[in-house]
């Protein structure tokens, strides 16, 4: 099963939605790999949004040289006040190369919570459970801490945990900076490494912005 997509994070998007396109280039145990992923969130109402998160990896150790997955679903805010928000997300899941006893299709249920602070810092936690046809299950958790500073800069520290059905558990850490322009679009540069004893390191390049807005 594919490792956890280490995107820029999937917290509650700002009003009007959000796009995050991420490219990753790295090496694990002397083999190179390349990842491309997207996180798209568009509002459907005051408390509900549509979410899509495709991911693909090209690597020599993957079946047929590639693997991919995608989640398409709906996120619903269940609590919000001035500094705290919680949401539930449910969606359809597709995985390209499951183990023999598993189907490619299934479902994902995700809980998301976040808190912001007066100094520009924020903290987000996500926990997801996944189920594929054939009785295969897995879990994921993402932790993000961030700080907005100097008006248009965002510093991020993230940890990604993945416990797949048919593979080893992985823990990855990522540090990155995002610089935003006046139109709300931003560029992200970062470094991601495995912190569970395995050898893996990668560079991260991401592009952030409002959904569907291509104006400079």
Rg is: 17 Å
Based on Cα principal axes, name the global outline: globular
CATH topology: Porin
Instruction: Give me the side-by-side strand order of the main sheet.
Output: 1-2-3-4-5-6-7-8-9-10-11-12
Helix content: under 10%
- What is the average per-residue confidence, as pLDDT, rounded to a whole number? 89
Unreliable spans are 1-12
Largest sheet: 12 strands, antiparallel, barrel
Computed structural class: mainly beta
Number of spatially distinct domains: 1
In the CATH hierarchy, the architecture is: Beta Barrel
Count up the helices. 0
| Approximate strand percentage | over 45%
Distance between the termini: 39 Å
**Can you identify the CATH superfamily?**
monomeric porin ompg
The CATH C-level name is Mainly Beta
Tally of strands: 12
The topology string of helices and strands comes to EEEEEEEEEEEE
Key features?
216 residues, mainly beta, Porin, 12-stranded antiparallel β-barrel, 66% strand, globular
Can you characterise this structure?
Helices cover 0% and strands 66% of the residues. The chain is built from no helices and twelve strands. The protein is an all-beta fold and 216 residues long.
Secondary-structure blueprint of this entry?
Layout: E1 18-28, E2 31-43, E3 48-59, E4 66-80, E5 84-95, E6 105-116, E7 121-132, E8 136-149, E9 153-163, E10 170-180, E11 186-194, E12 200-209
Antiparallel strand pairs: 1-2, 1-12, 2-3, 3-4, 4-5, 5-6, 6-7, 7-8, 8-9, 9-10, 10-11, 11-12
